[in-house]
């Protein structure tokens, strides 16, 4: 039997994020069950189960080796190695192999392109909008409120790729790198792909939108570089909506997150198999 896969999330207080993380763990469990490998998930902070609890459960089930994989699009911070060091102190006979973060894998970029295209080909926008629970929602309107947008060419459309934001300059630089990769591989017909961040570091979502407006964009599509829906996505949408309220001439659309899907599971399974092959 292969060693189990431990998916490690950062953790948040958001129930929607935790629920989607749980569904993704279940998807991986169903997939890897065919390869006789157990799958578990744990969080570094704020949510349960914590990594230490998940590891203790695996050890109690008789596992003496595991593959730990940070379910992250970004660089791994100091929390991950520090937590795994504490885990091995508690379980000194446990062997841990480590998988690489997902990062800008070509399949991840392709998923972003799908989300971008979905947002670009949405039905005509309805106005007015309001925030409900932090997310943009349509009010009840009659047919007179339907706005048919004029035809806008891809060359008049800009993209804002939004990362979480970090105090780590190298991590923020990685998001800029992803924007460039995404533009060159999937969005070259668009005017530009600008980078923005949800919090901590500038530019924020309004700053990214403002740059696109000054460059002459008629439409801007906000693409969250996020794995799962939740509070972070709601903040992206809320910031975009607030900016759009002051610039009604600009067609602003918001794409969905990457989300729990089979392609994302393919990437994780490849990272898992890669970690096993690196073991001498």
Say how many strands there are.
10
Largest sheet: 4 strands, parallel
Total discrete domains: 2
The CATH architecture designation of the largest domain is 3-Layer(aba) Sandwich
Alpha-carbon distance between the termini? 18 Å
**Mean pLDDT across every amino acid position:** 87
Which H/E pattern describes the elements? EHEHEHEHEEEHEHEHEH
Supply the CATH class of the largest domain.
Answer: Alpha Beta
Q: What's the overall geometry?
A: elongated
Radius of gyration (Å): 21 Å
CATH T-level topology of the largest domain? Rossmann fold
Count, helices:
8
Keywords: Lyase, Metal-binding
Pfam families: CbiX (PF01903)
Protein name: Sirohydrochlorin chelatase
InterPro entries: CbiX-like, Sirohydro_Cobaltochel/CbiX
What does this structure look like?
InterPro entries: CbiX-like, Sirohydro_Cobaltochel/CbiX. This is Sirohydrochlorin chelatase. It holds the Pfam family CbiX. With 280 residues, the chain is α/β, with parallel strands linked by helices. The protein has two domains: 5-101, Rossmann fold, CATH 3.40.50.1400; 106-254, 3-Layer(aba) Sandwich (Rossmann fold). Helices cover 41% and strands 18% of the residues. Strand 1 (5-9), helix 1 and strand 2 (39-43) form a beta-alpha-beta unit. The longest helix has 19 residues, at 15-33. The protein is elongated, with a radius of gyration of 21 Å. The relative contact order is 0.16.
In short:
The chain is an alpha/beta fold and 280 residues long.
């Amino acid at each position: 039997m292969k060693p189990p896969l431990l998916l490690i999330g950062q953790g948040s207080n958001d129930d929607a994020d935790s629920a989607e993380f749980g569904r993704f763990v279940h998807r991986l469990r169903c997939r890897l069950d065919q390869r006789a490998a157990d799958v578990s998930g744990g969080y570094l902070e704020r949510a349960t189960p914590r990594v230490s609890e998940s590891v203790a459960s695996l050890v109690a089930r008789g596992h003496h080796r595991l593959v730990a994989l940070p379910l992250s699009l970004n660089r791994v911070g100091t929390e991950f190695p520090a937590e795994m060091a504490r885990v091995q102190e508690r379980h000194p006979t446990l062997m841990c192999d480590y998988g690489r973060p997902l990062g800008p894998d070509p399949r991840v970029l392709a998923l972003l392109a799908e989300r971008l295209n979905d947002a670009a080909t949405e039905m005509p926008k309805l106005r007015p909008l309001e925030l409900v629970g932090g997310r943009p929602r349509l009010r009840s309107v009659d047919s007179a409120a339907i706005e048919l947008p004029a035809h806008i060419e891809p060359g008049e459309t800009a993209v804002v790729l939004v990362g979480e934001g970090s105090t780590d300059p190298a991590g923020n630089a990685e998001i800029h790198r992803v924007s460039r990769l995404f533009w060159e591989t999937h969005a070259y017909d668009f005017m530009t792909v600008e980078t923005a961040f949800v919090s901590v570091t500038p530019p924020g979502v309004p700053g990214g939108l403002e740059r696109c407006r000054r460059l002459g964009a008629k439409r801007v599509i906000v693409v969250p570089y996020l794995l799962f829906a939740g509070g972070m996505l709601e903040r992206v949408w809320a910031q975009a909506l607030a900016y759009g309220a002051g610039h009604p001439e600009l067609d602003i659309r918001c794409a969905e997150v990457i989300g729990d899907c089979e392609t994302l599971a393919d990437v994780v399974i490849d990272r898992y198999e890669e970690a096993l092959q690196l073991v001498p």
